[in-house]
Amino acid sequence: MTARPVVVIEDNNDDFAVLVRLYEHIDPTLELIRFQRGDDFMRALRAGEVTWPSYVLLDLNLPGPNGIAVLRELKGDATWGCVVVILLSGSARPSDVRDAYVAGANSYMVKPLDPHPYREQLSVLHRYWVGVAASPLGAVHE
């Protein structure tokens, strides 16, 4: 079974290009749907332009509303509040990690600088959320 798309909310073109290359090794059939701003993602969500993803990779530092603000808005939505959201950041500051979990993040991942461990971490994350964890999709559409 092919995984549902992964939504990536990332404003940096280089960081997104790295994700694309890494996911080509993890699952070459996987579709990555990119938004450069969190508010654009929320607008598309409300307009019904986004299908239910396997999970959302959300950058912490975004133009406009930052990742925490987007996360709070998403988790406050009656339908989309249970979508899996992984905050992806270069910051390992304890306050950023804590704020993400308080706002409802399912996971917080610090982006490694070296692509090899980054690919391995993303691979583990992907296998878990797609192949191990029960998806909230069925519960939402019961």
Structural class: alpha/beta
Cα(first) to Cα(last) distance is 21 Å
Radius of gyration: 14 Å
% residues in beta strands: 15-25%
Helix and strand sequence:
EHEHEHEHEHH
How many separate helices? 6
Classified in CATH, the superfamily is: Response regulator
Low-confidence stretches: none
Number of strands: 5
Q: In total, how many domains does the architecture comprise?
A: 1
Instruction: Predict the CATH topology.
Output: Rossmann fold
Q: Strand count, sense and closure of the main sheet?
A: 5 strands, parallel
Query: Which percent bin holds the helix content?
Result: 40-55%
Average per-residue pLDDT, rounded, comes to 90
Strand order of the largest sheet: 2-1-3-4-5
- Gross morphology is globular
The CATH class is identified as: Alpha Beta
Question: In the CATH classification, which architecture applies?
Answer: 3-Layer(aba) Sandwich
Can you give a write-up of this model?
The protein is an alpha/beta fold. The protein has a single domain, classed as Rossmann fold, CATH 3.40.50. It contains 6 helices and 5 strands, in the order E-H-E-H-E-H-E-H-E-H-H. It has helices at 13-26, 38-46, 67-75, 94-102, 115-132, 137-140, and strands at residues 6-9, 32-35, 55-59, 85-89, 107-110. A 5-stranded parallel β-sheet has the order 2-1-3-4-5. Strand 3, helix 3 (67-75) and strand 4 (85-89) form a beta-alpha-beta unit. Helix 1 (13-26) packs across helix 5 (115-132). The longest helix has 18 residues, at 115-132. The chain is globular, with a radius of gyration of 14 Å. The chain starts with 5 loop residues before the first strand and ends with a helix. The mean pLDDT is 90.
